[in-house]
């Protein structure tokens, strides 16, 4: 709590509406008096921080997204020099992936300037069912979040256990024929894995055991980005 009463109450209301709340549910979730909860919810609705759904329940409004979009992404800002350094150290293309439901998105990349490349443009949407980046993004998730996905994956639960043990993942022609990659976790300040940093390229250049040569550089790059 900040000690600023009305602000603290407004944050309680916003948090209680994350999954949608009626007035009765707001009172139950926040412990606020009914009149106070109603007044604050209406005020937040007037500022477009809350909206009503078809069931007349309050949910997060568009103003919250607008404010979030205006905030610089600290991880992406830090990623550019780290990816370039990783590319230069390894001689391979480097990428940063974030998970979105059952997909992963390339949110930043540094490509080789010449020679055979494994180009993954920023904004590319890739499956969570294959590739070293997907393995890293799933390896530290709780079992109940992973088990439903495994039947569609080209890796096993045992493979994810091995990723956790050694701190990185590698894949050989798992997502795309002829392509190998090595990935490591990027963590937030609580230690939760929030992204995967990767290098990728042709198998002819990376070999069948790319982790032996590239893992340490990728792990260190992940550590540089962690805690953002």
Strands, total number: 8
Calculate the mean pLDDT score and round it.
Answer: 92
Helical content (DSSP H or I, runs of 4+) = 40-55%
Order of helices and strands: HHHEEHHEEEHHHEEEHH
How would you classify the helix and strand content by structural class? alpha+beta
Q: Work out the strand percent.
A: 15-25%
Uncertain segments: none
Overall shape: it is elongated
Could you walk me through the main structural features you see in this protein, from its secondary elements to its overall organization?
- It is a single chain.
- With 228 residues, the chain is an alpha+beta fold.
- Helices cover 44% and strands 21% of the residues.
- It contains ten helices and eight strands.
- The protein has helices at residues 5-16, 23-30, 34-46, 62-69, 74-90, 132-139, 143-146, 157-166, 203-206, 210-225; strands spanning 50-52, 58-60, 93-100, 103-110, 125-127, 169-172, 179-187, 193-202.
- A six-stranded antiparallel beta sheet has the order 5-4-3-8-7-6.
- Helix 6 crosses helix 8 (157-166).
- The longest helix has 17 residues, at 74-90.
- The protein is elongated, with a radius of gyration of 22 Å.
- The relative contact order is 0.12.
């Amino acid at each position: 709590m900040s000690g600023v009463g009305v602000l603290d109450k407004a944050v309680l209301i916003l948090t209680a509406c994350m999954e949608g709340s009626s007035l009765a549910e707001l009172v139950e979730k926040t412990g606020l008096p009914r009149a106070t909860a109603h007044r604050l919810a209406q005020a937040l609705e007037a500022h477009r921080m809350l909206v009503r759904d078809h069931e007349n329940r309050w949910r997060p409004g568009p103003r919250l997204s607008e404010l979030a979009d205006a905030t610089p992404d600290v991880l992406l800002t830090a990623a550019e020099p780290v990816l370039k350094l990783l590319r230069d150290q390894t001689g391979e293309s480097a990428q940063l992936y974030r998970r979105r439901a059952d997909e992963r998105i390339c949110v930043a990349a540094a490509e080789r300037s010449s020679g055979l490349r494994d180009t993954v443009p920023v904004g590319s949407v890739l499956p969570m069912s294959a590739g070293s980046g997907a393995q890293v993004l799933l390896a530290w998730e709780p079992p109940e979040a992973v088990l439903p996905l495994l039947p569609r994956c080209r890796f096993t639960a045992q493979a994810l256990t091995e990723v956790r043990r050694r701190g990185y993942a590698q894949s050989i022609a798992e997502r795309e024929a002829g392509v190998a990659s090595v990935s490591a976790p990027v963590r937030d300040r609580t230690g939760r894995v929030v992204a995967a940093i990767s290098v990728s390229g042709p198998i002819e250049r990376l070999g069948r055991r790319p982790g032996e040569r590239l893992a340490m550089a990728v792990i260190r790059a992940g550590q540089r980005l962690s805690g953002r």
